[in-house]
Design a protein that fits this description.
Elements lengths: L1 E2 L2 E4 L3 H12 L4 E4 L11 E4 L2 E4 L13 H8 L8 E3 L5 E7 L3 E5 L3 H11 L4 H16 L25 H7 L5 H8 L14 H12 L3 E3 L2 H15 L3 E3 L4 E7 L2 E7 L2 E4 L2 E4 L17 H8 L6 E10 H4 L5 E7 L17 E4 L10 E10 L7 E2 L12 E2 L1 H22 L6 E7 L1 H8 L27 E3 L8 H16 L4 H8 L3
Parallel strand pairs: 1-13, 2-3, 2-14, 3-10, 7-16, 14-22
Antiparallel strand pairs: 4-5, 6-9, 7-8, 11-12, 12-13, 15-18, 15-21, 16-17, 17-18, 19-20
The structure holds flavin-adenine dinucleotide (FAD).
The site of flavin-adenine dinucleotide has 38 residues, from helix 1 and helix 13.
C-alpha cells in the first residue's frame, strides 16, 4: 500500500514546481501524469529527428532581479540549465495590416518607449502614461518588487479589480488603431481580447518580457530535464502514463487518489489540470452547486493551429532572435469576429537556431484558432483518461491541409519564405491540444483571465484539495510557476515561509 503526504496531478511546469517546493519542506510527494512523458505544454517532441517545442518559445523573469531566477535558484534548478539572454538587437517584429506597418518591439522598457514615441510623436503623453502605468502596477506586486512586504498576494487572483486593457488605452487618449494594436499585442501570450483583458494581467505579462527575455538551451525539455533531476534528488516519484480518474473522499476528507489500476493513499492533492475537468474526479455533491456551475462555465482562452516545419538555414537565419507577428489593426486579436482565415494573425518563431542547430532549421508558425472552427470531427466529448477519443473524418485531415497551405502562402507573401523551401513535419490543431494536454476546447492558456471572470484560487472547500496551474493565477512559464508558489505556500503554512527565503536567492 503506497502512502504519501501529497499527490500532485499533472507534470506541467506548475506540477513540477509545486512538487519541488513542497518536497523541500519535507513532504513526501508522488507526481502523476496522464501523458507518456512529463512536462505538459512545454514537452518537446521529435519528427524525423528534429526537435520541436510547443508551449515554450521565450520567457522573462530570468534577469538579475527576475522572480523566476529567484525561484529556480531557491530550488537549485538554475545550475542545471543553460539560460541564454536574447541579445540587444533581438525583437518581436510586428507587421500590421492593412497599412503594412512594421514595428520592432525591443525587450526593454526604455527602448520600447523610445521607439513608440519616434513612430507616434503625437501620442507621446499617452505612451509615457501607458508605460508608467504598467510599471506602477507591477511595482505594487511583491513578486516584481522584492522590497514590498508580502501583503495580500491572493489579490492577484482577482482580475475584476482592474479595468479592461482597451478602456485603459482609450482613457490615455490613444485612438490610433495601429498604436492600440502594438500596445495590445502581448495578449498573444495570454489569449484574451483587449476589450476583456484585465489591465493587471496585461501589466504582469508585459512587464515580464520588457524586463528582459531569455531562451533556455533545449527549450522546454531543458526545463523538464532539470526539474526531473532535482525531483529525483528530493525523492519525488514521477509516474507517467498515470491518468488520475478518481480522488477518493470520505467525510469531506481526501484519503486516496486512483490512477490506472493503482491507488495511492494521501491527505493532500494538488490538481494542476483544467479546473472544469476536476469535476470528473470527485463526487459532485462534495462541492456547492454554485462552485460546480462556476467551474463548468469557465470561459476558455482560444486554441491555436501550429505548423512545425524545417527549411534551409538561409531562409530561417534572420529569425534567430526575432519573432515575427502578423496582426491586423481592424481585427481585434483573439476576438474572432471575422471568420476569414487569411485575416487571422500569425506568429513565426525559429527555435532550432537558438539551440545552435546547423544546416536545416526548425521553426513554428502559430495561428490563434477557435475550436468551433475545426472541421470534420465528431464525438467531441473528451473522455478523461481515454485519450484520442475524438472521431476525425477525412474532412478533418483535408481541412488541416488547407489551413497549413494558407499559412505557408502567408509566410511566402509576407516574410519571403518560399513554400517550396519549407518541409512541414507536423501540424497541431485545437483537437491536438485537447488530446495531448487534456485542455478542453484545446484552450492554449487554460481559462481566460479576464475582467468578467474570477479565476479559481489555490484553496478549495475540501480540506487538502488544492488547485494550481495556468488556469488559477496566470499562464506562461512565469505565471504557472508563480501559481505553484502560491499553492505550495497554502499547503506549507503560508507563502511567506517560502518567499522570505526565495528573495534571498538572487
Ligand atoms: C502554443 C503555446 C505556446 C506558448 N508559448 C509560451 C512561451 O513562449 N512562453 C511562455 O512563458 N509560455 C508559453 N506558453 C504557455 C505555457 O506553456 C503554459 O502556460 C504553461 O506551460 C502551463 O503549465 P501548467 O503546468 O499550468 O499546465 P500544463 O502544461 O497544461 O500541464 C498540465 C498537465 O496536467 C496533466 N493532467 C491533466 N489532467 C490530468 C489527470 N486527470 N491525470 C494526470 N495528469 C493530468 C496534463 O496531461 C498536463 O501534462 C505557450 C503555450 C502554448 C500552448
Amino acid at each position: 500500500m503506497k502512502k504519501v503526504d501529497t499527490v500532485v496531478i499533472g507534470s506541467g511546469i506548475s506540477g513540477l514546481t509545486v512538487s519541488a517546493l513542497i518536497a523541500t519542506k519535507g513532504h513526501s510527494v508522488t507526481l502523476l501524469e496522464a501523458a507518456k512523458k512529463p512536462g505538459g505544454s512545454i514537452r518537446r517532441f521529435y519528427r524525423k529527428g528534429f526537435p520541436f517545442d510547443t508551449g515554450f518559445h521565450y520567457t522573462g523573469g530570468l534577469g538579475e532581479k527576475g522572480v523566476l531566477r529567484a525561484l529556480w535558484n531557491y530550488l537549485d534548478i538554475t545550475s542545471l540549465l543553460e539560460i541564454i539572454p536574447f541579445p540587444d538587437n533581438a525583437c518581436d517584429e510586428l507587421f500590421i495590416e492593412p497599412k503594412n506597418i512594421n514595428f520592432k518591439v525591443r525587450f526593454s522598457y526604455e527602448l520600447f518607449e523610445n521607439e513608440l514615441i519616434k513612430s507616434f510623436p503625437q501620442n507621446k503623453q499617452g505612451i509615457k502614461k501607458y508605460i508608467r502605468l504598467i510599471k506602477d502596477i507591477c511595482d505594487q506586486i511583491p513578486f516584481f518588487n522584492f522590497d514590498l512586504p508580502l501583503s495580500n498576494p491572493s489579490d492577484l487572483y482577482n482580475r475584476s479589480l482592474t479595468s479592461s486593457l482597451l478602456d485603459t488605452i482609450k482613457t490615455l487618449n490613444i485612438d490610433n488603431k495601429t498604436l492600440t494594436t502594438i500596445l495590445s499585442y502581448p495578449i498573444f501570450f495570454y489569449g484574451v481580447p483587449p476589450k476583456k483583458a484585465s489591465l493587471l494581467a496585461h501589466s504582469m505579462v508585459t512587464n515580464t518580457f520588457l524586463s528582459g527575455t531569455f531562451w533556455i538551451k533545449n527549450g522546454g525539455q531543458g526545463i523538464i530535464n532539470a526539474f526531473t533531476k532535482r525531483l529525483k534528488e528530493l525523492d519525488v516519484e514521477i509516474k507517467t502514463d498515470h491518468c488520475v480518474n478518481k480522488i477518493h473522499i470520505k467525510n469531506h476528507k481526501i484519503y486516496a487518489v486512483e490512477s490506472k489500476d493503482e491507488i495511492i493513499y494521501t491527505k493532500n492533492v494538488v490538481y494542476t489540470g483544467h479546473p472544469s475537468l476536476l469535476l470528473n474526479l470527485i463526487p459532485q455533491e462534495i462541492f456547492r452547486p454554485a462552485y460546480i456551475t462556476r467551474l463548468k462555465e469557465l470561459e476558455n482562452t482560444p486554441s491555436m493551429f501550429i505548423v512545425f516545419a524545417i527549411a534551409e538555414q538561409e531562409y530561417i537565419s534572420p529569425y534567430k532572435w526575432r519573432n515575427c507577428f502578423l496582426l491586423n489593426e481592424n481585427i481585434e486579436l483573439f476576438s474572432f469576429q471575422d471568420s476569414n482565415l487569411e485575416q487571422s494573425s500569425l506568429m513565426l518563431t525559429a527555435l532550432g537556431l537558438r539551440d545552435g542547430h546547423k544546416n536545416k532549421n526548425t521553426f513554428c508558425l502559430l495561428r490563434p484558432f477557435l475550436f468551433s472552427k475545426v472541421e470534420g470531427i465528431k464525438d467531441v466529448n473528451l473522455k478523461l483518461c481515454q485519450n484520442k477519443s475524438i472521431y476525425k473524418s477525412q474532412q478533418y485531415y483535408d481541412w488541416k491541409k488547407r489551413v497549413t497551405l494558407d499559412i505557408l502562402k502567408t509566410i511566402e507573401e509576407k516574410w519571403d519564405i518560399p513554400q517550396n523551401k519549407v518541409e512541414v513535419l507536423e501540424t497541431a490543431s485545437p483537437i491536438t491540444f485537447w488530446e495531448e494536454i487534456l485542455s478542453p476546447e484545446g484552450a492554449t492558456y487554460g481559462i481566460s483571465h479576464n475582467i468578467y471572470q474570477f479565476a479559481p484560487t489555490a484553496r478549495t472547500k475540501i480540506p487538502g484539495l488544492w488547485l494550481s496551474g495556468q488556469s488559477t493565477l496566470m499562464p506562461g512559464i512565469v505565471g504557472a510557476s508563480l501559481s505553484a508558489l502560491m499553492t505550495a505556500g497554502e499547503i506549507c503554512g503560508g507563502l511567506s515561509n517560502f518567499w522570505e527565503e526565495i528573495k534571498l536567492c538572487l
